[in-house]
Design goal:
The complex is a heterotetramer, with two copies of chain A and two copies of chain B. Chain A is built from four helices and eight strands. By secondary structure, chain A is of the alpha+beta class. Classes of the chains: A alpha+beta, B alpha+beta. Chains A, C: It comes from Kiloniella spongiae.
């Protein structure tokens, strides 16, 4: 399941909804991304996430399908917010449920790595010097490249 | 043909999207990027920052040599930074 | 922080408590373990987790300190329950908070792997054939061994 | 010397803990495991299942050749299966 939304989400509730009644699930891995108040070189008062409506949903759906192809998952969820957010606010949530912890952990990391390099979102940070578009990090490409099937 | 711009491509070119009608000689993504600067000074950014340019055709990532055709939705944007 | 307790816990609330007000945190990885209704060869109606009071706390504290030595974490939490639990109930929760997602993910997996092989807990499953002590899995030793520093 | 048993060691031996007073010749964990079966038939499990035996001294994992002394808290248990 994927959701692209402006409003906040409730991590505990999302995990409950996803696992509720499915007693085959032994492990639930999750990742929650938050807005930090410090970027590489400036203090951040807020950020705005721009995205490409339509393509975002398409990419997230593809990424999730790929994770379900690679691992035996009982359930999965990606929520990504857009719009203006302040430090401490929740940006992204990925949850994967599986029989065993290994596949839950791996697929959760896989989803985050691919989301970081494929999902069309762009961060504009509000710094004391004004708005600043965040540069993509090489380490994200490196992280994603380890999942390339040989 | 609809073309969309995101992030600093949007702010530099000065609009989020527009209808364009490239000449018939524009057959591929690369042709399109070579032709865009003829629309005005702001568009030279697609050449200047070509390393940082990502392209989507109909909401799927595309390569420079991919063909474009009437009715396609083209998008130009920098490397993504969500998550 | 570590907690060994008989009563249930609230994942969403624990994440909130751990991250609350700390705007240096960019990534929160978590793992939640649930009781499954199927073991390798039998249906399970419930299980009882026995533990070694005193040593459990000591081991979890050591494991958490080791994770904090290996990764730069802003916060971490291990909760492990003991006593009788039915399928679908929550057994264990590990949360790690860091500036970046890589260290959050890695330390969370590390904590789970070590907890699985070092924390003195034993599962007694209630099956149609009666109580059955769960055998340790070789795959858990393998998982833990990958963290041995060379 | 206090000794604790967990999981199927507890159910087989039939008690969760006891005070024991091994002779002075019992100096190491290995000596203790060799001596325990002399306490009764139930205790032979510590020899039969020696591969699956884990030992803690004062709540820390211990090896067979580690020394034990008066006042130590010894624990015998199978490989752990929590999490």
């Amino acid at each position: 399941m994927i959701r692209v939304q402006e409003h906040d989400f409730d991590v505990g509730q999302e995990i409950k909804n996803l696992t509720n009644g499915n007693h085959a699930i032994g492990g639930v891995a999750s990742f929650l991304g938050l807005v930090r108040d410090i970027a590489s070189d400036a203090e951040i008062s807020a950020m705005t996430l721009e995205h490409y409506p339509g393509m975002t949903e398409k990419m997230l759906t593809e990424i999730e399908a790929e994770a379900n192809r690679r691992w035996e998952l009982d359930a999965s969820l990606i929520i990504h917010r857009y719009g203006r957010m302040e430090p401490g606010e929740q940006i992204v949530l990925v949850i994967t449920c599986s029989k065993h912890r290994k596949s839950a952990f791996e697929s959760c990391e896989f989803l985050m790595d691919f989301l970081k390099t494929k999902a069309p979102f762009w961060k504009l940070e509000e710094t004391p010097e004004g708005g600043k578009w965040v540069d993509a990090r090489d380490s994200d490409d490196t992280a994603a490249s380890r999942w390339i099937e040989k | 043909m609809k073309i969309l711009y995101f992030a600093w491509l949007r702010t530099t070119i000065g609009k989020p999207l527009e209808e364009i009608t490239p000449p018939e000689t524009v057959k591929t993504v690369k042709d399109l990027l070579d032709w865009l600067p003829s629309l005005g000074e702001n568009y030279s950014i697609v050449q200047e920052k070509s390393d940082l340019l990502r392209i989507a055709i109909n909401q799927e990532y595309a390569n420079l040599d991919q063909e474009i055709k009437q009715g396609d939705e083209i998008a130009l944007f920098p490397p993504v930074t969500g998550g």
